[in-house]
Amino acid sequence: MEQPYQNQFSRFGKLAREIVTRRLSKLGIEKPKPENFFPENPKMRKEIDACKDRAEREAKETLGLSGTKQVNDYVYKTARAMYFRGRSPQSNRPPYAGFDTLVHLSTGVIRYLLEPCYRMYEREISEESRRSTGTIDHISSAIQTSVILEMSRKWWDKLRNGLDDTIKGCSREQAEQLYNLFNQLAVLF
């Protein structure tokens, strides 16, 4: 993949931002900004910024990249991976929060962005009605993380329980091989 397709300047990034902004407007949110409605976890933001700095140094010093675009592309492609790889295996799960994180997780498929956003909004409405403090101006990072982890668990369960039941022509052996492949990739990353 030569060009990042999930950053805010890519076609998908612009489309995602435009669609989410339009939907937030329909909810009555004034001057909606997806980044404000789906805020990042502040601690994670600091750590990712540190990874961006490290990736930039690596791009320039180790890889010898000199062009601004080359360096920016390298930083964009590797900083989040550095953050997730650099976490201690004993640490808690990272917070999956922030609009950019949601766009990354969607892998360029708008449905995979909108579905968790919808679930997060529903959860926040439910929490808000219990607190009854008024309107919703953002989705908490805790709710964002919770919804992403729940959806992830469901996908893993589907994979674990066998794709041979869901995909026509997929044998039990192939389903197990696919599960093992994804499981080992998860261990690696």
Distance between the termini: 19 Å
Q: Could you give the count of β-strands?
A: 0
CA-based gyration radius: 19 Å
Tell the overall outline.
globular
Written as H for each helix and E for each strand, in order along the chain, the element string is HHHHHHHH
Query: Which strand-content bin applies to the residues?
Result: under 5%
Structural class: mainly alpha
Name the descriptors:
189 residues; mainly alpha; 0% strand; globular
Helix/strand layout:
Blueprint: H1 11-26, H2 34-37, H3 42-62, H4 68-85, H5 99-105, H6 110-131, H7 141-160, H8 172-188
Helix pairs in contact: 3-4, 6-7
What would your notes on this structure say?
The chain has 189 residues and is mainly alpha-helical. Helices cover 66% and strands 0% of the residues. The radius of gyration is 19 Å and the shape is globular.
Summarize the entry for a quick read.
The chain is mostly helical and 189 residues long.
